[in-house]
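Model it.
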Amino acid sequence: MLKLGIIGSHTITKQMLAAAHASGHYRLTSVYSRHIERAKEFGQPYGAKYFYDDLETFFDQGDFDVVYIASPNSCHFAQAKLAIEHDKQVIVEKPAFVNPHQFDAILQLLQAHPQAHLFEAARHMYTPLYQLAKQKVQSMGTIQGATITAMKYSSRYDKVLDESAPTPNIFNPDFAGGALMDLGVYAVYVAVDLFGTPQQVQYFPTMTTSGVDGKGVAILRYDGFTVTLNVGKTANSYLPTEVYGLKDAVVFDNAFDTRKISYFDAEKHEHELIPDHLYGNGMLDEMLSFADSFEHPTDPERQRQYQERLQLAKKVNTVMFELRQSAHLHFPADN
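Modeled.
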């Protein structure tokens, strides 16, 4: 059983803990929060025994093998760095890091600490349903482009509209927030995994009063086709995600919480792709995959898969940064 420590007491952490429990491979032991009472309030119902409000003490004394980091985006780098220096296994919520400089520093640190591993929690990439879609796309004779949508209204945007309320972290440039960083990373993952690194990118953001992008459109140029990304946290979209062939297409009902994917053949007949399972908790597949890697650290095939995931995360990070650069979106963490 893997002993689990957590940083970040949010809704996504609760979903992760439910997935961790369902997997049968993790047991929560240690919780860090800036406020000790909050750490206890959050962790005790899940059976945690150790609580900390000092990050160094958390890593020095905490009884855990794996740390899950779900803090604001700008905090990920420093916290993951500490974890690797303490030879912990690391799961860091997307986006793992703000820019390629941070990612490169983490890669160097991982080389110096071979016992540690780091996974970016891009949950949609681990489901068998997504893998079926990837196989179908790879079998299409011609690719003419794609439209990938990741747009959902955030309840925290209400606080941005209420100018008397504090700015939520996810809409705050100091914490590397915004639509591209939060939901856009899902769309970038799909594009880079299916089609590789684009030749050229451009992002056209719609800015909020808090200084980050609330929504936007990105264009990724490949050899012979383009991919359009629609991302946003200030509106709801019900558009599917589509990959266009010649006469055929692959259609996702949702890019980041996928429940149905269909292949439409040249005769316009729909063929639903049916996976061997589809969990109610979208994080369960990734938590099972992470546990398999952590529990078999010397297995060559598992380590090959791990390195592939790490390099994919690196490519996504680079594309994300290039998209921000194209729109002149800069964060304090870039300095």
